[in-house]
């Protein structure tokens, strides 16, 4: 057995329903975005889709627009 301390990082992955609730969008919108290659990055675990919260935050930051540019 190693004397090294074990660091376990627990990160919650969001289900599409979690992200849909967070964004206030229908889950079908997220499905369409994935099909079109749009939206936050996602991870496919077999047949399951999950989102990393930091990927969602990064994507949201990229969507920010300058009100003066509108």
TrEMBL record:
Stretches assigned to the Helix-turn-helix domain: 16-63
Coiled-coil region(s): none
InterPro entries membership: DNA-bd_dom_put_sf, HTH_17, WH-like_DNA-bd_sf
Matching Gene3D superfamilies: Winged helix-like DNA-binding domain superfamily/Winged helix DNA-binding domain
SUPFAM superfamilies per the UniProt record, alphabetical: Putative DNA-binding domain
Domain of life where this protein originates: Bacteria
Pfam families: HTH_17 (PF12728)
Protein name per its UniProtKB record: Excisionase family DNA binding protein
Provenance organism: Saccharothrix saharensis
